[in-house]
Amino acid sequence: MMEYFFCALRNLGRKRFRSTLTVCGIAIGVASVIVIGAIGNGAKLAVNAQLDGLGINGINISEEKQNFADLGALMTQDDLKTCLSVQGVNSAMPLIMQEGDTVLLGQQKDAVIWGVDSNARSMISLKVDYGRMFTQSQVSTHAKVCLIDDTLAKSIYKRGNITGKTISIYMGTSYETFKICGIVESGSSLLYNLVGEYIPTFVYLPYTTAEDLRARNGFDQIMIKEDTNGNLNKTGSIITNLLGKKHSGNSYSASNMLDQKKRLSGLLNIITLVISAVGAISLVVAGLGIMTVMLVSVNERTKEIGIKKAIGAKKGIIMLEFLFEALVISLIGGFIGIGMGILISFIVSKVIGFIFNINMFSVFISSGFAVATGILFGVYPAHKAANLKPVEALRQE
What we know:
Oligomer: single chain
Number of strands: 10
Number of helices: 14
Shape: elongated
């Protein structure tokens, strides 16, 4: 076998430029599939990080609204105690979400205002880069303190740490001044780099203060975190049944945010797979290039093939010789493509700002497909060479 391999290298070396172009075709196809897979993985990780930052990692309990304008569908402290009493519930947190405006250093920005409890760091995966989370005492006293994301801080002050500064927040009644006690890391640098101008800034403040700002007691949802080995859907069903019995005539819903997150991840996987399949078309095109090169090689070496057959070379030997040439082109192109794909993925990840994550499945699939393509498109030229008649081959000039 090694003899066939070295023979294939010698034959390909005769036409270096032509062989190099064919190898490049395979390499580009393999690299494109790997880069697409890496970008898809990075995007999925970034989206998941963003969703975790929004609290999409548990169950959200809410009262079902009778219509869009139903402002009475709010959860109460009594409902919160009911949720905490259910076996398996690890922790629960009131959650208020409302669009509003912020004014920082005279610049107005649209914002999503989140009213949360002091345990929000563990509930919605908040990462406080500077300062601290507000305390339970500040929640109880309706303190006017807040945390903002670092995107807002950097856009206004051109630096991340602006703890101690003041910000004005409007949430439906009037502007109120808040002291910034902490800076939260934005959920995903990739998402903010790509669509940052469309994503509003996030502001987190005590839910009790948020109730005061919008002049309505009660909160929109109760966020539940369960024990590690629990069943989220079952727990959600138990809680909604309890609340329904407690408030006769009202109905409640439990949104399993983990299921929604999994469905979104599955959708991203499908999109990545479809785009990778489109990228794999370039491998088929490269395979056609291999066939063209091999057919030209057969025509150029017709007399050589005739001599080999005249001195006793069998069809199988001639066929293996040409198949190995196609295989060597595919292998060299595949290895170069893997290196190119990993390097380009690393560079792109640094430029865009997402986690460098190579999908080994796409590496193996693209490499295997490249080898299979080389063999497949090398069969016909090899078969044609093996079936040449010695007399006719020797007559060729």
